[in-house]
Structures
1.
Amino acid sequence: MKTNRSELNMLEEALNYARQGYKVIPLCCPSRNGECGCGWDHKDKGVGKAPRTMHGLSDASSDPEQIREWWKLCSDANIGILTNGHVV
């Protein structure tokens, strides 16, 4: 199976942040036409900035298994890092 290097890097980067103690969350990514790649309507968020989980920021985690599961479901997700209640 061929692995997309950029997708592997996103997972590895998310895991790296978690190892440093940060809680991460998968974020939407832009589609080729410049819209949000998830298909959801995020009027209040910029493209690629909305959490891709059911409960948004409250789902942020540093658990490696949870992070792997998220990126298995959406390998091209952007990475959000929860810091003092804000996502960067």
2.
Amino acid sequence: MYMQEIDAAPIRLDAVVLECRDVSALGDFYMRLLGWQRHYGNGETWLDIISPDGGVKIAFQNNPDYQSPVWPEAADKQQMTAHLDFAVRDKEHMRQAVTHALDCGAMLTQSQYGGDRWTTLIDPAGHPFCFVIW
């Protein structure tokens, strides 16, 4: 049954939560990368940042046992369970976004599977993320 067919409150995505060992460092990375602002949290166990329009948040939750995923995936290694895709307009914006991400502390992956429409990078906690020309 679709949500519109039942009498219930609407559901909306509020935040994507990334596990990490250093909440403050990962939050600072994404604030620099995206130009977003700190929204809530103590920076030790939880921190979330919010987009300028307030539409979505990325949150960072402390997990002292966090293990970085391996990219590309490999048997018997920690697997990626999710990743973030950020849209860019064209090849020039892709180049600028990648340069900016590297300056913020991201690493470019050796394996790139999206041709010139996708670029995969790794954030400081080891989470893969992509810039995608949409």
3.
Amino acid sequence: MSVRDYYEVLGIERDASIEVIKRAYRKLALDNHPDRNPDNKDAEERFKAATEAYDVLANPEKRARYDQFGHAGLRGGGGFGGPMDFDLADALRTFMRDFGGGGLGGFDFFGGGERRENRRGNDLQLRLEMDLQEVAAGIKKQIKLRKLVICDECSGSGARQGTRPATCTVCGGRGEVRQVSRSFFGQFINVSVCPECQGSGEIVRDSCPRCRGEGRTQGEATVSITVPAGVAAGNYIQMRGLGEAGRRGGSAGDIIVFIDEKEHPIFERKGIDLLMDLSITYTTAALGGQSEVPTLDGNVMLDIPRGIQPGKVLRLKGRGLPSLRDRRRGDILVRVQVWIPDKPGSEEKKLLERLRKIETKPPGPDGEQGGGRFERARDARED
């Protein structure tokens, strides 16, 4: 499949709403559907490309990964989804799932659409703040939260103890109703949630007094969150099935943990590298030496080469942050700044005055050592 931008494929803006995404996809899918374009490989490829783009952008979780990481965020590893390699069967199945459940010719390719899940519990979002030490090592935390949990009196059925829900007579327990319609393109089968049972396939005649037929009540739960080393602000962890309980036996939502990162007083993060400023004296810059430098694991001694210039960056290899995706570890980048005292002591001032008479002069504007031609011409005029 092409690696074109999904927004470009559908011809929409990056802030497009889900309604805009669906309208753009539906038009492209109908124009290029294989039933309308038999033996047209170009139309088939456009149909598959549009469906792949729609499958990602219509899903909030996939869309968030795509917006943050691009196509790489949809490949395997690191909790991300699998490869987006749609074949024609996948594309047709996706089209039928969301736009009718039947083929354009009036027959069902795959035996019907999927039941719409409208009893699913809500997702919960948490923000977890971490400092650099925690980012470097990874953490495990226990968090207590309030959420809807399964009613322990009716075990989530919503029915009073000793009774059972009855099969919905409108949908026959399927949770969905189908309506056949005809258009220019042929016969469509529109599948929608049953209005009587709201997709459950069952009707509760005698409700549980504790949850009033919902199958869930307010409660507390403690969740354990494991954050791997190397995460960054904006990353998130999806904990499937740990969100709020679904209505009357519906599937539970997810917990989505967003990572925030505390600002460090010394280090500035640059991916897996850490940047810091180190102030050294003039004599250390000129003669070289060693300086004590902080790291996330304690202080180390850094060799300062003689003649180092302000702004030069020295590297402490392997002292940065671990990579989230492989076994690499970043470096600490030490940016050297030469510290000049604003009020030198009397003895120090005398030594500096003596030094001024014998010190090597910096390069002139032409780069020539000792002031260059410009400096010598000025001295000649003064003489």
